Amino acid sequence: MLLALDSGNTAWVLISAALVLFMTPGLAFFYGGMVRSKNVLGMLMQNMFAIGLVSTIWAVVGFSLVFGDSGNGWIGNFDFLFLADVTNLDGDIPGMAFVAFQMMFAVITPALITGATADRLKFGSYAVLIGFWSLLVYIPGAKWVFNGWLLEMGALDFAGGTAIHISAGVAALAVVLVIGNRKGHGDVPMPPHNLPFTVLGTGILWFGWFGFNAGSGLAADGLAAQALVNTHLAASTGMLGWLLVERWKGGNATVLGACSGAVAGLVAVTPCAGFVGGASPLIIGFSAGALCFLALQIKERMNWDDSLDVIAVHLIGGIVGTLLLGLFADAAVNPAIAEDSSEGLFFGGSFELLKDQFVAALVVGVFSFVVTYALAKTIDATMGLRVGEDAEYQGLDQSQHAESAYTG
Amino acid sequence: MKLITAVIKPFKLDDVKDALKAIDVTGITVSEVRGFGRQGGHTETYRGAEYKIDFVPKVSLATVVDEARVDEVVEAIAKAAATGKIGDGKIFVLDVDRATHRLAKKAPTPSSFSLFAGLLDADASFETHPSLRPNRPR
């Protein structure tokens, strides 16, 4: 039976959809500032293009495959193909508002990968990669986590710690393993060309994340306010955690560190936003900032050219948030925890939730790695995933787009 | 005619310019350059990764003067650019065989040739580009 529409909830979800859309250009500038000047347009383009391509896929088939009521927990159906009949969705917001909100999540997730593969993906192959990645990795993962068997098992993910950040973070690693390191990686300095862009992008991401997390309850209510405050606090302590460890390790308190720490805190609070309260977001953010800084070591040890640290920030940040939720989930904040799942270890629960969180992180991570690796290998073998040496030296801006960012 | 080129610390440029103006040098040409010498570079850190930046930013300035005044000009630059620390820079003096002045319709004087030449007598061995000579055949 259809509920009466609530105008307040509808307004908030529509605004949240716009906020989440804005995160993708924000991510473009966050990453764009960190690459060399000859690749900045390539980076901005990869992110902007994700809006165009993934939105189209989402309308045609994506939404239906996640939210079509197939009766099983693994994949949706084709009821909502081309967004037909979405007015029949349950809830007190229009089905189309939910479509729009979820669409923006689908858009930004593959865009997260571009940070790891910076400066060396062929544009056409990138388009094929993220198109198929959305269909084969994001859509099943989103179904399981938001509307399927992982949710029913009891795993909690408020706004996408597993289906978005862990999934994209693992995919980033898989693609890096297929395409290899940038030419000169480790020998030639490749410092960020425009950190002010990165600061700008961080601000946009932070702002948009309020919609991402506080919109995920699909209501303009107390839980949305709690999620918004949690989001902000975790970003704040994420920044502090990163900077303190950076200083403690003998470095300066860097601008890039402040931005990276804030984003790490935002990533970690994503699964937790509507399930925790009190001091928990402060601890979650701080832990993420500190641990993500330490996780920068992973790529050094393994010699993976995860160029802009998608593994350290999104994968590790996502894991930190997903697992900490197993400790901090608080039924006093969100009664649904007691009804549908179990409480966190520190809030009257057992190890049950922590175990479920671990299973969800592992399943989504392994699934994303296997499918992404196979997909990247296939594209590499057929159309070639990486630009030629000349094109890489010339830079993506000129070699892929016949443009230059800075002229005159 | 001598070309004097000085590579100096960027923040000393205004001091050097004022010192040269004070001795009636009428023009200099300035470029921003990078290089390395004994001063060495610096390190920058991005997400824990250290980058060694070898090239230090410097300013290169050039002026052309009459031979008689070379010592005076070199001394003015050296004095104004000095900090006493490593990396103050270098001054080079080179012969100039020929200079063509494309913009003036007559042989240049120090005041009219201000873009590049610093201190030249009016009868210095400048020539004017043929296209600018008055009364050239049409």
Task: Describe this protein's structure.
The complex is a heterodimer of chains A (408) and B (138). Chain A has 408 residues and is mainly alpha-helical. Chain A contains 16 helices and no strands. Chain A starts with 6 loop residues before the first helix and ends in a 7-residue tail after the last helix. Chain B has a single domain, classed as Alpha-Beta Plaits, CATH 3.30.70. Chain B is elongated and about 55 Å long. The longest helix of chain B has 12 residues, at 70-81. In chain B, the strands form 3 sheets. In chain B, strands 1, 2, 5, 6 and 8 form a 5-stranded mixed sheet that branches. A two-stranded antiparallel ribbon of chain B has the order 3-4. A two-stranded parallel sheet of chain B has the order 7-9. Chain B has 2 helices and 9 strands, in the order E-H-E-E-E-E-H-E-E-E-E. With 138 residues, chain B is α/β, with parallel strands linked by helices. The interface between A and B is medium-sized, with 18 and 9 residues.
Say which CATH homologous superfamily of chain A is assigned: Ammonium transporter AmtB like domains
- What share of the residues of chain B does DSSP label as strand, in percent? 35-45%
**Approximate strand percentage of chain A:** under 5%
**Overall pLDDT level of chain B:** 81
> If helices are DSSP runs of H or I spanning 4 or more residues, what is the number of helices of chain A?
16
What shape does the CA trace of chain A take?
Answer: globular
Given as residue ranges, the uncertain stretches of chain A (5+ residues, pLDDT < 50) are: none
CATH topology value of chain B: Alpha-Beta Plaits
Please state the average pLDDT score of chain A: 96
Structural class of chain A: mainly alpha
Please state the CA-atom Rg of chain B, rounded to the nearest Å.
19 Å
